[in-house]
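Q: How would the structure tokens look for this protein?
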Amino acid sequence: MDTNLIKQIERPTLREQVYQGLKKAIIMLELKPGQRVNDNELAALFGVSRTPVREALKRLEDEGLIESVPGSLTRVTPLLEKEAKHAFPVVAALHGVAARLSMPFEREDICSLEQWNEKLRVALEQQDVIKAIEADDGFHDVILEAAGNREIYLALERVVPKVRRLEFARFGSLEGGESVKQHSRIIEAFRDNNSQLASSLVEENWISLGRLLTDHSNDE
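A: Here is the predicted structure in token form.
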């Protein structure tokens, strides 16, 4: 068969795998804020050459997760609450737009929201921070997928890591029951096909999380 449109599906490139692995390690605080990183050591851990590691570090530096300081020191960017505080309203607004674009909401999407919210409730009861954040992500991903707007994904990809590290650092100390209740109200708004209310509630869900995580920030 001769066709220009149907092509073999490409697997993620090596550089993309290294980038995603490093990004996840930084966001989940396996690589801690301020920790020095060495391309030789990272290359050995990944089992690759230094080239994809250096490319990943440069990309992460452009995104503000890695920084180079005088003296050839490369390190994970310190966790700055001020940056996260500024990022939360942006994240909230983008998710609010996604909520409006996702209407009318399909019945199966409503069921997915309910399932993720239940997983969040259980994870919070078990004080499992990783599963709680995964469930929260799953909940909001349903809305993002229903919106089907790639530009929102691309914008969030750059700004979300600035808030995600703070979530992993402090999520476990928060009272998460309110988030489950907020999600329930969001689900009801989607069930009623009330796009304005759903958008407002989604935004407030993110804004309130930002307030909880940054209330005691001393950054100016």
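The beta strands are 66-69, 73-76.

The chain is about 70% helix and 5% strand.

Upvote if useful.
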